[in-house]
Design brief:
Number of helices: 12
CATH topology of the largest domain: Rossmann fold
Strand order of the largest sheet: 2-1-3-4-7-13
Strand content: 15-25%
Distance between the termini: 13 Å
Number of strands: 14
Radius of gyration: 20 Å
Largest sheet: 6 strands, parallel
CATH class of the largest domain: Alpha Beta
Order of helices and strands: HHEHEHEHEEEEHEHEHEHEHEHEEH
CATH superfamily of the largest domain: Response regulator
CATH architecture of the largest domain: 3-Layer(aba) Sandwich
Number of domains: 2
Length: about 350
């Protein structure tokens, strides 16, 4: 499946990669920070946009923290379509930015191409794993999906074990369902989304073997109308806990749950805070601390401790976890909360597997 996913990413960017035939521009000389100079940080979103109430928004929050705490100077550019990825990176590079953060699996090829073109810029990419050195046989086996792009010594991959927090979300869903049908309204079938879905389905079945777990992948992260339509369709099939996994597309599924009086689970961030329209329905959110990962990456550049390779956030290091139950705190039985804690302990010590 990874090869197929890889092919999709390549096809999406195929038109843009032809630009590589042109003579490369001279890489800006930004390798070392002059004393007292502000670190210049650019963030390039994927097509979900910076206000997606999800991981683009969280990544920008991490950059803003670097502005507040590290004195960085920062700006973001929103990609409206995949063909924007490379030119948006170029814009920051030619303006002599020191650090470029790219957000999302679909930006993997563009980031690799531009990291090679601009070797003095430090890149951080969310949700795409590269081998740290050319020909390296090693790969983070907790993530599994990683690609050898010729050795990228100026790129840090910011990865997350979505299957772990997805599993916990599934435990909550499987413990709360009244119909024994839970579901996921998912964006594109790419590794981070697949990890969430796999974990969720197996977590629900771990606590409740009678659960039927539905899922639909939608080939877009920016189609809330389709997400809502899909959510309503699965609610019609009996789903009473909807997990929205796919930025604005998944948000449509959450809205369907809210409007139909069903339960919902958010993704990437605590969507109780970022998507107040669906608060009443939200049991919790399966959160990835993208903001923390991005901030720590920028901090490593600022402090001169930057390392290329793969940084993986998981339950053990606090990089992923369930958001608070908020309005559902008193409604979720202690028995379900106890099973969530049992699952946390088991995932941390390896006695429970997510199935991914």
């Amino acid at each position: 499946m990874r090869k197929a996913i890889r092919s999709v990413s390549v096809l999406l960017l195929a038109g843009l990669l032809s630009a590589a035939c042109a003579a490369p521009r001279q890489a800006p000389t930004t390798g070392s920070q002059a004393a007292g100079a502000k670190l210049r940080v650019g963030l390039v979103t994927d097509t979900g946009g910076v206000n997606d109430k999800s991981f683009n928004q969280s990544a920008w929050a991490g950059v803003q923290k670097a502005v507040a705490e590290l004195g960085a100077e920062a700006k973001f550019i929103e990609s409206k379509q995949p063909t924007d990825y490379e030119k948006n990176i170029d814009q920051f590079a030619t303006e002599n930015y020191d650090v470029i953060v790219t957000v999302g699996f679909l930006m993997g090829d563009a980031t690799a191409a531009k990291a090679k073109q601009y070797p003095n810029i430090k890149f951080g990419i969310v949700d795409y794993a590269y081998f740290p050195t050319e020909g390296s046989p090693s790969c983070d086996q907790t993530i599994k999906d990683c690609y050898d792009d010729g050795g990228l010594k100026n790129v840090t991959s910011l990865m997350f074990q979505e299957d772990e927090v997805g599993f916990l979300a599934g435990v909550v869903a499987g413990g709360m369902t009244q119909s024994n049908v839970v579901c996921t309204v998912s964006g594109m079938e790419i590794p981070p989304v697949v990890r969430f879905v796999t974990g969720y389905q197996n977590g629900a079945k771990w606590i409740n073997p009678n659960v039927n777990a539905l899922n639909v992948y939608i080939p877009s992260f920016i189609d809330p109308a389709k997400g809502k339509e899909t959510g309503n369709s699965m609610i019609d099939q009996g789903c009473d806990v909807v997990f929205g996994v796919g930025s604005n597309t998944g948000n449509g599924g959450l809205l369907a749950a809210k409007e139909r009086g069903k339960m919902a689970i958010g993704v990437d961030v605590d969507q109780y805070e970022t998507y107040p329209e669906v608060r009443d329905a939200l049991l919790t959110s399966a959160a990835k601390n993208v903001d923390v990962a991005v901030f720590e990456f920028i901090k490593s550049v600022k402090e001169g401790t930057f390392k290329a390779g793969i940084n993986t956030a998981n339950l053990k290091n606090g990089g992923v976890g369930l958001a608070p139950y908020h309005d559902w705190e008193s409604k979720i039985p202690d028995s379900v909360k106890a099973k969530v804690q049992e699952a946390i302990n088991g995932l941390k010590d390896g006695s429970i597997k997510t199935g991914y």
